[in-house]
Each structure stands twice: as structure tokens, then as C-alpha cells.
Amino acid sequence: MKRICAASWLISAALLWQVPATAQSVTIPVETRNNALVFQTDANKNVGIIYLGSKLADQQEYNQVAAAYKQTTDYSGVANALYSTAGTRNLFEPALSVTHADGNNSLDLQYVRHETKQLDNNTSLLSIYLKDPVYPFEVTLYCKTWFNEDVTEQWSEIRHTEKGKVTLHKYASAGLYLRANSFWLRQYHGDWAREMQPEEARLTHGIKTLDSKLGTRANLFQPSAFMVSLDQPATEDAGTVLYGAVEWSGNFRVDLELDNRDNLRIIAGVNNYASPYTLASGEVFTTPAFLSVLSTKGKGEASRKLHSWARNYKILDGKGNRLTLLNNWEATYFDFNEDKLKALLKDTKKLGVDLFLLDDGWFANKYPRNDDHAGLGDWQENKKKLPNGIATLVQEAQANGVKFGIWVEPEMVSPKSELYEQHPDWVVKQPNRPEHYFRNQLVLDLSNPAVQDFVFGVVDNLFTKNPALAYIKWDCNAIIYNAHAAKLGNQSHFYLQYVQGLYQVLKRLRAKYPTVPMMLCSGGGGRVDYAALQYFTEFWPSDNTDPLERVFMQWDYSYFYPSVSMSAHVTDWGKQPIKYRTDVAMMGKLGFDIVVSHLEEKDLRFCQEALKNYESLKPVIWQGNQYRLQSPHDHAVAAIAYLNTQQTRGVVFNYLVNNRYEAGSVLPIKLKGLDPARRYRLQELNVYPGTKSTIDSSKTYSGEFLMTVGYNPDVKASRASVVLEIIATN
Ligand code: DGJ
User: Fold this and answer.
1) Nearest CA-CA partner of 91 in 273, 208, 257, 228
2) What are the backbone dihedrals phi and psi of residue 529, each rounded to the nearest 5 degrees, phi first?
3) Residues in contact with 600: Cβ distance below 8 Å, sequence separation at least 6, in sequence order
4) Could you tell which of 327, 329, 369, 520 is best to mutate to test the pocket of ligand 1, judged by most ligand atoms within 8 Å of the CB?
5) By three-state DSSP, how is residue 349 classified?
6) Domains of the chain, each with CATH number or no CATH
7) Measured in angstroms, how far is the CA atom of residue 34 from the centroid of ligand 1?
8) Which residues line ligand 1 (CB under 6 A)?
9) Low-confidence ranges of the chain (pLDDT < 50)
10) What is the pTM (predicted TM-score) of this model?
């Protein structure tokens, strides 16, 4: 079915590429299964965006779109520019602004030609070539689309052949131009342990900028992921909503400008803060991709499309397996030795997870890593704690029938470390100014190839010495203060080249170790984006594992990231019982960070049983369609369901998030995504030992009933979290 649709689209696309709007203009519709993004040139060869929305049956009609709007004059004629420039007629926020080799600041980009390539039966790549009529300066705009998922990536390539260097002052990935009565921005903010806090507001005229200047851990205060609803805030199931994000793990910038015609210009890409780029003649500058997905059926559909795209095309091993694990971070912090770890390895098996993950504190001798003030950079096993090295632990893990993983933070250095003493010029810091620390540490200069080799070597050595090593947790705790790289010729290139250096290292690692699972951690969720996730199998959303907080956080992360990528650990944070904590962590990639030997017998039994349920349900949770049924932001009970694509099996998680008198599932909760004609049974899972489910699992309901009237999980103070399996009976 998919193939036929994609193929018929191919034919219509091929016919369409040169549909003329007027004698001089060219209309370029980029269509996916549901949507169209349409570009059009004018008589002066400017390329504008004339449409973004549901696709039309008759593609000729895109030519009528512009005339249907009777908005105030566009004095410049380039207000809807696909890639707006500076120094000529555009006086709105530019995507690209330059100083030419002769000192002139003007740029105009005119259409030359375009072409499209079908990359496979679902993916196509449009290239639009633009050129300045006065200067030998060119830009190619790329628009890659995934037909079935309605996902688009846009980026640009910038080059020139001027006699001398050109300075790029701003070099965004791409722009979009939207028309509607009103625009509602949903953005996210946070800090350590408070990641992904949503805020929604109507956009007013002027520019709203989402950005980061933190260098590393760039999402600490704000990620680049956002959504814009058109006309009214979209709900889960209704409304037009555009999700956007920059695929970049450093400083980003998203400008949302509501202009004099009440239209919304979105310009997104790398942050140009302190980063003018000097482009040599003949050099090609490639921006990272700006990712977007549009849904006219609400946020739920937008998420499902993005999840499916991410699993199929972006996240490393997105369709593959993941390992459940026991982490020792909160069980021991820095205070452990070989014996303690061996005991934890036994507990790993007893609990029933796949892997033991050794966290921070295993390394450094001259300045031992006994707290977070020393040792980062000295990646040799600490002889006191681990006299027989990591190798013994890996063997011990194998003897216990579990795998072994390890924590690293290879981009960082402690001022108290041998690495700092030996290579002060590898450290990002201003010469002649006092150092300023974030978590008592500094960042290594990844723009320096020698540092890239070192960082690669940290991980490579671990694998070389311990080929059975099965998991890496890659942490990144510091942001960059006093940005200065001793070996870099042009300091303005630092922020860019840091991230490029990081990707170089990750590329090298993945070339050598293509599939080993790696967790992207950044003192919590300080670094998650779809560029980084090409190298990682999962990310750590937050150090805040209080399950009540996690219900909210995982809900908000789930707009953009699928559960297979979201690590969620059961810890001692929060006041909820182990059942609630485990039920919440089961919505993601499950792990534990507790002292197993401290668990009461019933608690342990509960966890062991829950792990078995997880084993059986993980294909549905990781690869199924997610339906956010009831938001914790405005209900006493939050509910989220995952259903397999055949609509025959699912799981629904229900959590009480409100403590008020008699708060609970007073009303039924409507399921989504079921087959109305089938019959389903609801069976409660993760029932705590010694308690009885109040759900009658012998009853069956039609899909229609469950989606129209709903189900009642009987959530209340004494049943604060309820996990129900949904099983089709016919
Ligand atoms: C921050 C991470 O988010 C934690 O999970 C833990 O690994 C610590 N770093 C270790 O220092």
C-alpha cells in the first residue's frame, strides 16, 4: 500500500516540477502524503513560500493560492522569501547576512534552477539553486521529505568564488512562512532537574527568539524543539500544528517573526552569536538541518509521525532492542569499591535486568574521582577502588549472566587533573582571565583535532581493553564559559567547530562500533536533538526521577521523541511507592537506580514481575503508536496508551497526579486508535503482591465503546497508578 502511494506521488511530482504560475514564474510544490509546501518564483526570480498546509487534489490550484490573500502590501516583494537575505530589500529578520570580499554588505538571491531526486520510495530531495546577480555568491537550498511521515528537513549550502573571503554573519538552515489568523507558540524551558517545562502563548507582532548560547549542554535552559498552532492552540486530536527543531547539538537560534501582514516567518538554525564565519573562496558551508512536521489533525498525529520517522530513519538502531539496566549512581554515588560493585552485579541478575551500568567515580589516581571536584580527564581505573580494573568487573558480570556498561564524560576536564596539568592548551578558557566553572569542571576544546583523537581514544580504549563492554553512558555536565580555544586560528569559528568536532568523534566511534547502545546524557536532559541521536540509542531526559515530575516531563518529551529513545529509571526520588515509580519508568526505556538489597521482599517481587511484563510489552511501548489520552497538566489522572500497529494489543498507563480530596478517575477515559469493530479485554498488570485488581478482565468491550464511552482504570489514592493491557479478543 505504502509503495503504491509513494510511486503515484512520484509520477505527479515529476510532472509538476515545472508548472508555470505565470510566463516568468515557476511553482515548486513539495508534497508528502498529507501536506504540501509550495515555493514560487516571481518575475524578479525571488523564491517565496506561497503555501504550507494540506495538499490539494489539483496541483494546478497552488497557483491560485497567493491571490486568495488580500493582506496589506508587501512593499519589498520578498516578505515571504524562502531564504531571506540582508542588505538589499528585505528588512525583516534575514536567514543569511554577509559581508562580501570587497566590504559590501548586500545580498540578493535569485532563482537559477531546481531539481528533485527520489532517494528511495519514501524519501525525496529537492535542491533549489540560488545566485546573487552581482556577486559570484551562491546558495543551494535543500528540502528533504519523507512522504509517509510528512516530515521535512531543510538546510542550505553556501559558497562563493569572490576574490577574498566572505563573512557570514547569520547563516540559518532554513525559513518557513505561515499564514493564519493567529499563531500559538508552545515552547519549553528548564534548568537542571526541571527540563522540558512547557509554556504556550499567542505570538504577538515582532520577533520571539528561542536560543541557546551555552555551547555544550545547549538545551539546559531551553531546547530548540517547539510547536506552532495555527488559528487556535491545537489539541491532541484537532487543529493544525507545526513542530520544529534544529538538528544541532550546540548553540541554536529560532526566530519567529509576526510581520506587518500578520504572517509568521520562522528562521531556524545555528546561533550566530559570537560566530561570524569567514568563508574562503570555493569553500562550501553546509548548515545543519531544520526539522519540521505538520499535522492538520492535532498534536497526537504530529507526534506519531515524528516518532515513526525517528525510529525508521534517525535514532541509532531505532527499530532495535534496548537493554534494561541497573545503574549504581544513586545507589553509591562516588563511594564504591570492587566488592560493593560485585554485590551489585549479583543484584542485577536477581532483579532480572540485562545490564549493570557503572557510573561516575571509577577513574583517576593522582586526583581520584571521589567527588565532582577532581579527576575528569584521567580515564585510568582508580587503583584503590578497582585494583583489578574494569576487566574483572566485566568478567564478573558475564559470570553472573548480565552485561556490563560504563559511564564516561570524555569532553570534560577537572582543573584538578593530570590532563589539565599536561595539556592546559586543550582546555576551553580565556587566557589571562579567571576560570569560571560549571559543576567544578571545564570543557575540552573539541575544535582541536588532537582533542578529538583523545576523546575518541577514551571510548575506544575502553572497548579495546574490554571487548565485552555492552553499553556507554556519555555524559556532558558543563556549559562553556570564557569561550576560547588556544589552537584555533579564528575564535569566531569556535562554537561551530566544537560541535563539528564532536560529530567527527561520534562518527569515528560509530564507524568502529556501529551498534553498541549509548545513552546521550547531559547532567540530565541538557543535550537531546536529532543530530546527536543519530549516534545514540537513547537519551537521559532528566536527573529528576521523582515519578510525579516524570509523568509531566515524559509527557512533554513525548511530543518530540519516541519512548524507545527515552531512558527512565526507578530511583528513590519522590514519595511514591515502588509500584508507581516502576509504572512510570515503564513508559520509556526501563532501568533501575536503587539498592536492590534494600528492597522489601514484596517490593523486589513486584519489580521482578514488572520486568517480565515489560519484556513482553516492550515491542508495543517502543514501536507502537502512542496516544496521549489525558494530560497531567489539566487532569487529576494522566493517561497514555501505546498500541501495536495491528490494533490488537496495547497498554495504557494511568497515574494519579493530584492529591486533593477524592481525586481519581471519576469519569471514564476515552481510548484512541483502536479498531471500533473489534472486541477488547482490559487486564491489569503490575498488580502489587498481596493486592487485588479491581478491573474485571473477563469483560470485553468493543473498540467503539472504549473510544466513545471510555474505560475506567479505577485510579484513586489507594490505586495511584494502574497499568492495563489491552488485548483484542477477535
Ligand atoms: C549527571 C548525570 O545526569 C547523572 O545521571 C550521573 O551520571 C552524574 N552526572 C554523574 O556525575
Assistant:
1) 257
2) -160, 165
3) none
4) 329
5) helix
6) 13-299 (2.70.98.60), 325-623 (3.20.20.70), 627-728 (2.60.40.1180)
7) 42
8) 329, 359-360, 407, 475, 477, 521, 523-524, 540, 543
9) 1-21, 23
10) 0.96
